[in-house]
Request: fold
Amino acid sequence: MKSSPQLYLLDGSSYIYRAYYGIRELSTSGGMLTNAILGFTKLLLDLLQEHRPDYLAVVLDGPREETFRRKLYPAYKAQRDAVPADLIPQFPYIRQMLAALNIPTLEAPGFEADDVIATLARTYAGEGIDVTIVSGDKDLLQIVSDRITLLDTMKGQRSGLQEVRDRFGVPPELVADVLGLAGDTSDNIPGVPGIGEKTASGLVQRFGSLEEVLKWRSLVGSKKRRDALATYAEQARLSKLLATVRYDVPLAIPLTELTRQTHLPTLLPLLRELEFSALELAFTPPPAGIVEIYSDGSGRDSGPGGYGVILRYGAAEKELSGFEASATSQRMELIAAIKGLEALNGRKRVRLYSDSQYLVRGMSEWLAGWIRSGRLDTPDTLANQDLWQQLAALASKHQVHWEWVRGHAGHPFNERCDKLAKRAAEAGIQASAAGAVEEVIPLPTAPVYHAPLAIRVDSEFAIDADGQLQLC
Reply:
């Protein structure tokens, strides 16, 4: 059954600030600060790679002084600091980045990003689109439905209907009632003094809405709370109005305008100007006729492990991952490379990248000596001999260049493979603990080695000094 199209709406202003405070003291060689630009761009890249939305838009706030909420209540968000001076020059570059990535940027005068998001989310959800709101703002939980979820990428948490109930004790349509009573210090919404979120939730659950709480306040057990509800009834109503998102923003955007396709002639020069070399690598396609394979394994000295692989050819990209119930970290590194090579059809020119010196040196340096000495085929003469035999057989079918990359140092594909491997390992461990039937990821039987790799006549190799116990 085909899944519904996926629309992602990113709370851009919130994530720009998260990026700004998440990465500090980053600048170009010329001294221009780029911390918010880099953090925000990495967020976009992660979102595109991990979730692959069919449609995507970034929604930004306009000037807070011009919103209808500020006119209703001048103190709304008035406690917030002004935009940091060193963030302001980065905004134009963020917009350039969005334009180069062909990601639409949306905003509406007089409204906040939450209102634009709510309007678009409800509109498209009503048309059968599954909508994900990318934000950490709890106010947006009020628009969650069977087709609308909230994703906080910083916490790795997705919230649906049940998560809203777990958080507020009420369904989404009553979240604003709870906030009306409890207030919201982050937005300077006053609420009713003396009533916190837990108490507000209990009152709304008991009486059904903020208005019903005010109507039946005489039944509230605490005299102090009864008096507060009577004194601050209008303030509670105003607070609910401030906390309630709008669904009537006059912004008609055809869904077809929310598709994206990166414009490399604009993007790559921008990345070079900003000196984002790792991101430039992430967006640069492999050379013509070359298949790039990035592989990584996740495991310990023994026990469960996972592998992650990314194959790139032209504009195409494929991810592979899997779980092994029992394997060393060295075996997982070799298995990852095997899985990548197995995915190839026909003879290919391949560049295989790994952060495992054990793998890369084994295939580019040690293998020739093992073949020459007969150790590759002599039983019990090599650790992980079965996997080395499989790698040798697979490599002989292609023209493979093996290259080591420094792990976890900002390399975009190595980091992605690492995530894939760790997630596969975690999922396998959880499935095993739950007693689920484990998916068997068989490796082929050890091949008969027919086509030895060419041995460089000028190579020097000490047969017993292959370093297998020193490198991993």
In short: The first strand starts at residue 6 and ends at 11. The two ends are 43 Å apart (CA to CA). The domain at 6-173+195-201 is CATH 3.40.50.1010 (Rossmann fold).
